[in-house]
Amino acid sequence: MRLKKILKKLRGEGITFELDLPGRRLTSFRLGGEVAAAVFPRNIKEVVWLLAFLEQEGIPYFFLGGGTNLIIKDGGFPGLAVSLRDLRGLDFQLEPESVTVSVLSGEPLRNLVSLGIKLGLRGVESLAGIPGTVGGAIAMNAGTPEGAIGDFLEEIFVVFPGASPLKLKARDLSFSYRKTNLPQEALILQATLRFLRTSPLQVAQAVGEMCRKRAKSQPLRYPSAGCVFKNPPEDSAGRLIDLCGLKGKRHGGAQISTRHANFIINRGGARARDVLELMDMAREAVFKKFAICLEPEVRIVGQG
Ligand SMILES: Cc1cc2nc3c(=O)[nH]c(=O)nc-3n(C[C@H](O)[C@H](O)[C@H](O)COP(=O)(O)OP(=O)(O)OC[C@H]3O[C@@H](n4cnc5c(N)ncnc54)[C@H](O)[C@@H]3O)c2cc1C
């Protein structure tokens, strides 16, 4: 099916889309090639219809939340980017000892943290300052040394390509450091999380502390995708890259941050290629010096 026909169909369904969207409009790195079209479904029904339609027509697609852990290669993507950014909604139920939160996957994670401050959700500070959406956070098991989103998960509502949506309980899932056993083609629609209650003041203080730590240790003034590599067991990728003398290394418009060596920043006009080549340099140097193979944390899509 030609793109024009696909778009006509989307229009007919009332689903919003934009043509030829560059990577800088979809990702926090502010770089990368164009996607043929980005689609912005606003409710679960639209997402489920869209996925079934794309599968049936054999149209290439990928999905994203906030694009804060994503690189789109310079050659772009010839199909559709399904953005969940408009799939929003956050609700909660108070119990004497705990709070159950129900959230649609495109909801910004910061809104969950804000709710956590208001209601005193114990442990929510471990998610403070992580950009992106709740769905993206679950897909990545995002977190900090203090904890990760998987610690609070009760259930997800998820759709696999070509199938009907289904609920998966936390006991069906496994979470480890920046990893889940959910296949990458599973799209998270909604999540239910449960937090124990504590004093809102305590949570507010802990969140404030986390944000201060981040501002000190991370290059937040520049576009990036956060840490580009996962930390190897018992070590830190940033420490190893630093010991290889690569802190501050520039390549095209990209640079290994002088503040945090596991961050690559876009100093202006960086191409995806600049970032990927810097990542290769860092991996090679760390492997040569320490015989440790760094695994990318950032997800990469597209061609060229
Ligand atoms: C300044 C900065 C600081 C950061 N700090 C941290 C940190 O402290 N800890 C941390 O863990 N991460 C951190 N990150 C990385 C990033 O913010 C997290 O990984 C975040 O959870 C990604 O969410 P997202 O919505 O932006 O996902 P995206 O980047 O849009 O997508 C990432 C992956 O998740 C998949 N995905 C997105 N939405 C869904 C969905 N609904 N269902 C299924 N899969 C989905 C995508 O297909 C993609 O493979 C940081 C990033 C930046 C820029």
From TrEMBL:
UniProt entry tagged with the keyword Lipid biosynthesis: no
Catalytic residues in the record: 178, 227 (proton donor), 297
Cofactor annotation: FAD
Pathway linked to the protein: Cell wall biogenesis; peptidoglycan biosynthesis
Record-linked Gene3D superfamilies: 3.30.465.10, UDP-N-acetylenolpyruvoylglucosamine reductase, C-terminal domain, Uridine Diphospho-n-acetylenolpyruvylglucosamine Reductase, domain 2
Superkingdom, taxonomy of origin: Bacteria
Gene Ontology CC, one term: cytosol
SUPFAM superfamilies: FAD-binding/transporter-associated domain-like, Uridine diphospho-N-Acetylenolpyruvylglucosamine reductase, MurB, C-terminal domain
InterPro entries xrefs: FAD-bd_PCMH (IPR016166), FAD-bd_PCMH-like_sf (IPR036318), FAD-bd_PCMH_sub1 (IPR016167), FAD-bd_PCMH_sub2 (IPR016169), MurB (IPR003170), MurB_C (IPR011601), MurB_C_sf (IPR036635), Oxid_FAD_bind_N (IPR006094)
Catalyzed reactions: UDP-N-acetyl-alpha-D-muramate + NADP(+) = UDP-N-acetyl-3-O-(1-carboxyvinyl)-alpha-D-glucosamine + NADPH + H(+)
Keywords from the named record: Cell cycle, Cell division, Cell shape, Cell wall biogenesis/degradation, Cytoplasm, FAD, Flavoprotein, NADP, Oxidoreductase, Peptidoglycan synthesis
GO terms for MF: FAD binding; UDP-N-acetylmuramate dehydrogenase activity
NCBIfam families assigned to the protein according to its UniProt record, in alphabetical order: murB, PRK13905.1
Protein family (similarity comment): Belongs to the MurB family.
HAMAP family: MurB (MF_00037)
Biological role stated in the UniProt entry: Cell wall formation.
PANTHER family: UDP-N-ACETYLENOLPYRUVOYLGLUCOSAMINE REDUCTASE
Name of the molecule in the record: UDP-N-acetylenolpyruvoylglucosamine reductase
Source organism per UniProt: Thermosulfuriphilus ammonigenes
